[in-house]
Write a structure and sequence with these properties.
Helices cover 44% and strands 20% of the residues. It is an alpha+beta fold. It has two domains: 31 residues; 46 residues, no CATH class. Bound molecules: zinc ion. Zinc ion (ZN) binds next to loops.
């Protein structure tokens, strides 16, 4: 009786593990590595930001401004590399 339950539980665990793996695989497949180059206005270093992070940050901007990030090297402002620099 006890063995039966353990066996059942083990099968469920394996099923869950299998499903987790599948979901991760799915996410991996649906999440191609797209990076947008951001360049620091202060020191000029380039830091690629995954595009889904840029998308998430864009949602809060009501005035349509592009999201900016902080430079990991000097804490300066980073802007999209393709965007012409405003002077
Ligand atoms: Zn910098």
């Amino acid at each position: 009786m006890k063995d039966e339950k353990n066996k059942e539980k083990k099968q469920l665990d394996e099923l869950n593990k299998g499903m987790e793996g599948t979901i991760e695989d799915w996410l991996g497949m649906n999440d191609p590595d797209v990076f947008i180059d951001y360049v620091c206005l202060e020191c000029g270093c380039i830091d690629p930001v995954p595009d889904f992070i840029v998308d998430e940050c864009s949602w809060g901007d009501e005035d349509g401004e592009e999201p900016t990030f902080f430079c990991p090297a000097c804490n300066g402002t980073m802007v999209r590399k393709e965007k012409p620099r405003i002077e």
